[in-house]
Design brief:
Elements lengths: L2 H8 L2 H9 L3 H23 L2 H18 L10 H35 L9 H18 L4 H11 L5 H8 L3 H19 L8
Organism: Geodia barretti (Barrett's horny sponge)
Protein name: ECF RNA polymerase sigma factor SigK
Family: Belongs to the sigma-70 factor family. ECF subfamily.
Amino acid sequence: MGTAGQDCDVLSDQELVLEIAEKNRRALEELYARFSGPIYSLAVRMLRDSGAAEEVTQDTFFNVWKRAGSYKPERGKVTAWLFSICRHRVIDEIRRRKRREQTHVHQDVELADQPADDTNDPTRFANLRMQRGMLKDALSKLRAEQRVVIELAYFGGLTHSEIASRLGQPLGTVKTRMRLGLRKLREVVGPQSREWV
């Protein structure tokens, strides 16, 4: 390692960030060496996924490279700034996962909307189509968080525990959303259709 690298070794965290703002790659490497472990540990604790945590860690330091000039020492230590960047990136990842989960759920609903192959009786076929149409319309009137748990349970075949694990939510929250969502569904579809909700 050259003199510049040795110089970076002795710089304080704040001085490293100032150097990174001047696009000093050695300074970024030194900051990474000091803090990538703790940043990764925080990400893996929050995401429970080592691959995603590694991506978050890389993204955190990429953001440091881009935004080092925005660091203000008077607002707090470099460590607090780094952990803040990491937390924001983790939140983005969690939101992305939930959006993807909802997309998968809606695709499942589309598949579930197809009538079963054994409906040779035209009246039964028509009734099933009507019921499914009403159910999809009723589901669209629910709050998003209630709709997702109901769709995962009834179209995805997941248990309450599996839904809680998949969405990263407490089991009690999932059960409450399920109960409130089903109550709302029964109100929306009316008395004539409550037996199939």
